[in-house]
Amino acid sequence: MTEPVKMVPMPSRSIIPERDLGKKPVLEAVGLGIEFGGLSAVEDFTIALGRTEISGLIGPNGAGKTTVFNMLTGVYQPTSGVVLLDGKNTAGKSVHEVTRMGIARTFQNICLFSDMTVADNVKVGMHQSIACSAAESILRLPRFWKGEKDADARAKEWLDLFGLADLADQKAGNLPYGAQRRLEIARALATKPKILLLDEPAAGMNPSETAELARTITDIRDRFGIAILLIEHDMSFVMGICEGIAVLNFGHIIAKGTPDEIKNNDAVIEAYLGRREESSC
Fold first, then answer.
1. pLDDT tens digit string along 145-173?
2. pLDDT-based confidence at 279, cuts 50/70/90?
3. Is 107 a domain residue?
4. What Cα–Cα distance (Å) separates residue 29 from each residue in 10, 50, 216, 231?
5. pLDDT of 251-262, one tens digit each?
């Protein structure tokens, strides 16, 4: 059994793994909030993420977790607060600009190009790193073919990593559910992110697939040295893989801590199970 990771406090009211101390957090969200029609959906959301941390964002349905992901990735522009990616402000950046800065994500509902091949789905994630102009692509100049050859080779590497190489020429929509999840993660990693956001990656998986996913996520962190922030409702999965956890309820963070601290936190227990009634006996 591996030693528990020691988490240390940050000035931003967050904690990061001790091994990341002394390095700039890869992601900092400070006082993040957003309103829709005058109603606050998320308020004063503040976290810091260590450069190699696997962290969880949990909470009941409707707590605002996916809204947070949408703010972190540029889908929504926050009403208040700031998002710093590697120390750089993402304010006003579009989704593709934020992706270029180093954030990649997957979605609660799998978003693949179903009619494209498995290999082509991964190559979509590489488009920002392929050095080829539109004119060179249209005219099929030598630089275009070199870029295609390089992309094919890199796509094969990603597919090998996720056990999908034998399925490279199949349509993505024909893959089994678990394989589609792995492909979506492979495509996100092909953008060469500094941080990977996973929105309910274990949803719909059986216990065997979930255990394999946990190993894959740890392997990704160890191999590529990136941070991972995930939303998940499978508490055994979260407690088994995450080093730090933030709990969101009604748009507010109600607890931060290690898995042991979170599962014994009264506010967290109440958010999930309701207030315990006092006995009249």
1. 465 667 777 888 888 888 899 999 999 99
2. very low
3. no
4. 13, 12, 26, 16
5. 999 999 999 999
Question: Phi and psi at residue 192, in whole multiples of 5°?
Answer: 60, 60
CATH code of the domain containing 227:
3.40.50.300
Domain C-terminal end among 160, 191, 222: 191
Is 89 found in the same domain as 11? yes
Residue pointed to by tokens 């199949």: 170
CA distance 86 to 17: 17
Cite the beta strand spans of the chain per DSSP E: 7-9, 15-17, 27-36, 39-49, 54-58, 80-85, 88-89, 103-105, 195-199, 227-231, 244-249, 252-257
Domain that holds residue 131: 113-191
Q: Establish if 275 belongs to a structural domain.
A: yes
Model confidence pLDDT, tens digit, residues 72-102: 999 999 999 999 999 999 999 999 999 999 9
Pair 199, 150 in one domain: no
Q: How many CA atoms lie within 13 A of 80 on its CB side?
A: 12
From residue 271, how far is each of 15, 239, 247 by CA, in Å? 22, 17, 9
Same-domain status, 121 and 82: no
DSSP β-bridge partners for residue 202: none
Tally of domains in the chain: 2
Structure-derived torsion over alpha carbons of residues 192, 197, 203, 206, reported in degrees to the nearest 10: 50
Q: What are phi and psi of 174, to 5 degrees?
A: -90, -5
